[in-house]
Amino acid sequence: MNKITGNAVIVRTLFNNRYTVQYYQREYNWGRKQIEELIEDLTNEFFEFYQVGDSQRDVMRYGNYFLGPIILTNDNAIIDGQQRLSSITLLLIYLNNLQKNSTYSKVNIDNLIYSEMYGQKTFCINVPEREPCLEGLFDNGDYDITNETSESVINLYNRYKDIEEIFPDELKGEALPVFIEWLIDNVVFIEIRTDSEQDAHKVFVTMNDRGLRLTPTEMLKGYLLSEIDDDNTRNKANDLWKAKVLKLKEIEKDGDADFIKNWLRAQYAESIREGKRDAENKDFEIIGTTFHKWVRENKSIMQLNKSSDFERFVLKDFNTFSDLYIRLKQYSSSFDKEYEYVFYNADRGFTLQYQIILASIAPSDTMDIINKKIKLVSCFIDQFIAVRVFNFKTVDYSSIRYTVFNITKKIRRKSVNELVSILKDYIKAMEYTLEGIDGFYLNQFTRRYMLHILSRMTYYLEQNCGINSSFANYVNRQQKNPYEIEHIWADDYTQGNHQVDFATEEEFKNFRNKFGGLLILPRDKNRSLQDMEYTKKVVKYDSENLLARTLNVNCYRNNPSFLRFIQNANLPFQPYAQFTKAELIERQKLYKEICKKIWSLDLLEEISNS
Length: 610
Known about the structure:
The chain has 610 residues and is α/β, with parallel strands linked by helices. It folds into 3 domains: 4-209, no CATH class; 216-432, no CATH class; 437-604, no CATH class. It is 55% helix and 8% strand. Strands 1-7-3-4-2 form a 5-stranded mixed β-sheet. α16 (367-390) packs parallel to α18 (416-429). The longest helix is centred in the middle third of the chain and has 27 residues, at 307-333. The protein is globular, with a radius of gyration of 27 Å.
């Protein structure tokens, strides 16, 4: 093997080059989970140092964050690390777009994303098939994947959209330039370079095949089994553990560790780190990193004192909670009407729901009780998210981790009747209510939730009118022609009555984003109708989903199931030949009434009595 070099390199230096990817390694295959973990790790580390009021210069005293090794040849071919480098490229593009609308100082990172010659952009990782997608994302944050055949390009687009949804709101203001400076100057890779591709592959094999260490899951298993005296029972526990871990890993790569963290936090964690610099890690954080050690040190709190306790912990508790976690993951990815709220919460990226639901379960609960608790708690979480979002309050992990931890402890192993009372009281005591819908509109924050909300309304209406409807289809971003948010008003101040209703074009544009002026349509229909005036649009709406059709007078003719439902539900639907400012305000009030039924507190009582 020829000369090998290894150096620590920051993002600013590493991304100031252009890299190629060998044809047999060109697939970009990260999923949402990997992006979530990357954003969570980076932002959590950043908040270890950042304090409100810090400037870009303060980053000089911040600590570093290590993102692992990458293996390159000296002619800049990537042998290992392109998933991370591609994902950081997407993050840099997103941050750059975020800066465009920011009133705070901007950090010039264009040269870390692309170089330009003769008007042609070449991105950091130079794979020709990716260029149009990356250019679209860089220019306007979007790219049409309707006819796209490349799996890598589709994945790049979808992961960018994940970043849009996941990136925490508290980093979008004055902290944004500070975060960008920290990302490019304090996030570190180890760059390993070789003279030849052959040598690079040898390094890759050596790093991945030798010195494998036990995972925390394996170390926890070893500890638990070592405390079981009887050989036959120990073997039985070992077989059960292996079988469940295999199923958990089939769901997702690190499913076993994710389950154990959620389970232990839900059932046993009593403390969480204070939100200040240099605060000491507590139960919540320690379980998240070294749960095998935490169990050893807290065995008495967990009532693990003798062999029979360890037997029960593995053969009963681990068995029950792992099966439950697997079910929750299945409900999250595949819509099941009976457990619909788990799917709704997952669609909004609320991963903390697993911890909260698991907290409510007692190991002695019957299956009927467990099922009822899943429905109750997931319905509560759905209402909790809705109230916050309608009032422009974030549900990002870093913002509500303390809130979620307190909810976890409050409902831990409570009975169904206790749960109903606690959950209803919690919603009633929230600082905000669904009255916030009066001022709800589409902006940078609500964009990530608006498709979900409009899809819920459309699905609710169609379902209650006997129409075969699919919420999962409405929010499926992976399909060829996904649904998008439709503005009832075209973006044209000169159309209709707008110049009479609004003194300025800016006032019109702001009002156009009001909740009551929005629908969902398939992408191709949405784009074909964009510039059309309302009197022509409303004719087209008559062949679309029911929420859109309700604007057209034809929806109120020979449609007994719809008319019966809106009368019984006391929903003031009506058609509109014209759609002016007054009609939009009226429609906003209608949307509020629909939402109050979808997110009604009465649902908790209905579930408990079912």
